[in-house]
Amino acid sequence: MNTSDTIIAPATGSGDAGIAIIRISGADSLSALFRFFTPTGRQTELQSHRLYHGLLRNDSDFVVDEVMAVYMAAPHTYTREDVVEIQCHGGQQVIKSILKLYQSFGIRLAQPGEFTYRAFMNGRLDLSQAEAVSQLIHAKTDSSRKLAIKQMGGGLSRVIYNFSSQLKHILVLTEAWLDFPEEDLPDEDIADFIAVLTDLKSKILTITETYSCGRVLTEGASILLVGQPNAGKSSLMNALLGEDRAIVTDVPGTTRDFLEEGLSIDGVPVSLVDTAGLRTSSDIVEIEGIRRTEEKISLADLVLLVVDSSRTPDQLDFSALESCSGRPIFVVYTKIDKAIELDFNTFGAFPVYRVSSKTAEGLDSLRHGISSFLKKDYTTTDETVLLTESRHFEALQRCLEPIGRALFCCQNNADLELIAFDIREALYFLGQISGETTTEDILDDIFSGFCIGK
Amino acid sequence: MSNYGKNYQVIVVGAGHAGCEAALASARMGCTTLLLTIGLDTVAQMSCNPSIGGLAKGHLVHEVDALGGEMGLNIDATGIQFRRLNTRKGPAVRAARAQADRMAYSARMKNVIENEALLDLKQGLVEEVLVEQNRIVGVKTREGLEFLGQTVVLTTGTFMRGLIHVGLNHYAGGRAGEPSAEGISASLASYGLRVGRLKTGTPARLSARSIDFSKLERQAGDKVVKPFSFMTGSIDRKQVDCYIAETNERTHEIIRNNLDKSPLYAGIIEGIGPRYCPSIEDKIVRFPDKNSHQSFIEPECLKGSEMYPSGLSTSLPPEVQLAYFRSMVGFESVEIMRPGYAIEYDFIEPMQLKATLETRVIDGLFHAGQINGTSGYEEAAGQGILAGINAARQCQEQPPVVIGRDQGYLGVMIDDLITQPTTDPYRMFTSRSEYRLLLREDNADQRLTELGRKIGLVSDERWRCYVEKQKQVEAAMSFLQDTKVTSSDSLTVEKLNLGDLKSGVSLEQLLRRPEINIQDVTSVCSGLRDYSPQALEQVEIAIKYEGYIKRQREQVKRDREQEDVKLPETLDYDAIPSISTEVREKLKKIKPTSLGQAGRIQGVTPAAIAVIQIYLRKKSS
Which residues bind Mg(2+) (chain A) (predicted)? Predict the structure, then answer.
């Protein structure tokens, strides 16, 4: 293990607690903290071993979380290095967002047991604990490896594996050209490399930007407004946004496509999506809108089922509810400024909010409900999954730079050996997820792909 | 049984490319040395292709030369065609390659050996190693003569239980026309060394006057020759041409129709052949879509008629060889002078070696070359010089010399050999080095001359030249940094096309521009002409590749953290908790010398490395 860089990981275990602690250790801890943390007291210097209240903001100035932070100067710390601990809200999304924030600043995610390992290497732990530590590292690495293998089947791992194999293909050709100049090989044509690398770069950028680990941070949690036409969805959206953006008429079905707006609810970035009303329609444009609504529902972090309280609920309200099944749902009764025509318990055991977009009554309570839900989080993934996901993100993030350099080399006709150097480095980072690419692997591919031998 | 009566410090068995370097190194370091060979007429014989160098191999020759070895000087003196490869792919992958006059190469090396004061060259076929209490004490020849020595370096090439295959016929032999050494491997196995079997092959040699060269493409050598050795001035002797020939569909059909006569496909050959050098029948089977294969037709010597057709090694019967050659354009009436053949031979699994090339099982016994499962003259020479150095240092009670992976391909090769299982004959490729940008031919002297000097292999003359070059590099660098060009230097601005020049820049800054090279700068700045081209080359590379070289150095530094944690030979892996049985067994078998090396052993996980590190810390305090 490298012990010279700065590392980060949650210091509290898995399970849904109200508060989580994220630990950063290494020489860059303090500068890393200040990069995103604004103390409420506007202090420019923090005293060691003192707790400060403040906000963590991302580069777009979005508030990620309201936190307490402590900086502890070496050597009186757990690892005997400079340490920062951030006490944040306990939801997994919040923890992920904070980890991502620091990873993007170049802080490396700690290996299993690495804080303890550093503590030991720096002489902090008692010698009798050494054996326990080594067992801990072994056990933890083992279980996270098993988990990683389990996850290889799907999702992001497969994507990374695919990126790896594309890079490997480039490296195989490059190395063949370098090591076997007198052999009968395909022409040295790097136009193809430029296409592959450009594509890879943009795909990785997309993933790292929209990756769910940081969704709350970058595009916000996705909240969907669903309900039958003219239930008051657009009015509710405008009321939450505080401006007139959706088209509101009394003709049912005015909102045919999605209206998506970003806003911050109590410091949590949210993307609010107003959908086409869910109803049976013969209008082709609207049918398409309804189909896409159903698709969107499956991806939503929270669904607001909007029901007009001035009317008796009918089949359309129930089918709207049914289309959201399996997603977290809030039932929002609108138009409470009008005469109430329904029983507020109609839709069963979901949280219920009563609002009037016209008078703003109940809006604050809804806002508060949404933010505390998002902060508490609805998913219960365990710590290892979270760390595994963050590792994937880190691998992708880190390989972007060498891929960019390789692309630059290709475009500027630089020496082939430099392209090989950069591709190797990119592969090294992806290899932390997809498995190391050894020289032997490259040679195998060269000898099985090309007829070498003079 | 009789004793020769003279006690040697180092006995080298085998006078091929490994043996010659080993014997010369040990004798030059002051040890009384014996070089034993089966045939005195085949010293430094080129058994296969008559050439030295190429990618990574040229690098090895430069490293052997920097340490004070002979190979670079020998090829510079006897090369008949020189070509520099990869001139436009970056400085680290430029490599020297030369065709040798095979006879002259052998004769010159023999002469150098004969004139080395402490070195005895003798003919003798070794049958057995002599061991007392796990310590080598000498060797015994077929005639029953015993030579006693403090250390022994075995460089057996393809001779241990060599078995030659030509078609379905096979017979014992170490090389065409020479006997095999039947006893050594059994003798080694009796002390517990594991023996494996490999295969290699060589093409037929053709008579030059029977080839119609007018139908072949000609390939000339470079106009300006860059020598292999740091100590060779310029080489301006007349060079010979090579030719490029091609197989065709008819050639392939003949081969395909005769596969049943190939021992490879009849299942007679059990040894594994080199992946990078398959026989022509193998190529045709594995790449059926290729309708033509290239072959370089290379002269074997100036005063002889034999031509070497590269890439066409085979174990098919001689009549089939003749038929397929005659199907090729230009070879319609070719005559074969020696048929091609395949050879199987014993090797000793190199994971049983220390990084000094000494065996773990028998103290004082060193192995170099094909006995370690490698292939190639340059790979052999590299191991030879290091085995010779370490045998000599052991006799002189000096600490051993081990070269790091960041210091040279020599280090990469030996580290690979002792940590990775042998899958096929090991050949060096530049892709095997993780620090390729640092391990260049042009800086081999900077990487290894000081070490060679310390060991006692670098002569006063070479040392003087080396120090002089280093001074020039430094001075040239300062000159470039300190000399400024402004827009008023109209001649420079015009010649280097610097229309965009606004304020003054240093020559160093100019040289950073991709379109400007050191020749351009020299052409406008007479002050630079005082420096040697070699010094200017170093400065140019240092400036132009600064960013990449810096990143590579940082990588070395990171890796050094683990390379610098030495693992004692006596480390008791059974006492370390929480490592898997599989990993434990591997570590016990290989006994890595550093934590970094332990990490390169297949199957040793990062977690195991962390555990070992913690264990060491615990033990030391």
Answer: 234, 255
Residues in A touching B430 (Cβ below 8 Å) = 178-179
Rounded CA-CA distance B23/B19 in Å is 6
CB atoms near residue B190 (< 10 Å): 11
Q: Where does chain A hold its CATH 3.40.50.300 domain(s)?
A: 217-375
CB within 8 Å: B290 and A451: yes
Identity of the residue numbered A421: F
Residue A113 annotated as lining a ligand binding site: no
Q: Is A293 annotated as a binding residue?
A: no
Beta carbons of A454 and B295 less than 8 Å apart: yes
Domain boundaries, position B493: 475-561
Within 8 A of B606 by CB-CB distance, chain A residues are: 1, 111, 141
What predicted TM-score, i.e. pTM, was given to this entire model? 0.80
| Binary contact (B431, A442; C-beta < 8 A) | yes
Q: Å from A440 to nearest chain B CA?
A: 8
Pick the CATH number of A129-210+385-434 from 1.25.40.10, 3.30.430.20, 1.20.120.430, 3.40.50.2300: 1.20.120.430
Output the CA–CA distances (angstroms, integers) from residue B607 to A136, A257, A388, B516, in the order listed: 10, 53, 17, 49
Q: Which residues does chain A have within 8 Å of residue B90's beta carbon, measured at their own beta carbons?
A: 415-418
Q: What is the ipTM of this complex?
A: 0.93
Q: What is the DSSP string of A199-242?
A: HHHHHHHHHHHH-GGGHHHHT-EEEEEE-STTSSHHHHHHHHHT
Position A379 confidence tier, pLDDT thresholds 50, 70, 90: very low
Please give the residue that has the higher pLDDT: either B99 or A139: B99
CATH hierarchy code of domain A217-375: 3.40.50.300
User: Which of A3, A138, A439 has the CB atom closest to B611's CB atom?
Assistant: A138
Q: CB–CB of B617 and A121 under 8 A?
A: yes
Q: Is B192 annotated as a binding residue?
A: no
- For residues B42 and B131, membership in a common domain is answered with yes
- The nearest CA of chain A is from the CA of B160 a distance in Å of 25
Contact B420 A421 (CB under 8 A): no
CB atoms < 10 A from the CB of A89, how many? Answer: 22
Domain covering A7-124, topology? Gyrase A; domain 2 (3.30.1360)
A415, B607: Cβ pair inside 8 Å?
no
A230 a known binding residue?
A: yes
Number of neighbours of residue B172 by Cβ within 10 angstroms: 12
Residues sharing a CB contact under 8 Å with residue A202, sequence separation 6 or more, in sequence order: none
- Residue A271's pLDDT is 76
User: Does the pLDDT value for residue A313 go beyond 90?
Assistant: no
My answer on whether B106 and B33 are in the same domain is: yes
| Residues found in chain B | 621
> Which residues from chain A sit within 8 angstroms of residue B576, using beta carbons?
134
Share of chain B above pLDDT 90, in %: 84
Please list the residue range(s) of chain A that carry CATH number 1.20.120.430. Answer: 129-210+385-434
CB-based contacts of A293, cutoff 8 Å, min separation 6? A226, A258, A275, A276, A278, A323
Our CA-based measurement puts residue A217 at a distance from the nearest CA of chain B, in whole angstroms, of 33
Q: Is the pLDDT of residue A163 over 70?
A: yes
Which range in A122-126, A204-208, A431-435, B508-512 is most confidently predicted, on average pLDDT?
B508-512
User: Is A178 close to B278, i.e. CB distance below 8 A?
Assistant: no
Option in B275, B551, B606 nearest A447 (CB): B275
Residue A210 above 60 pLDDT?
A: no
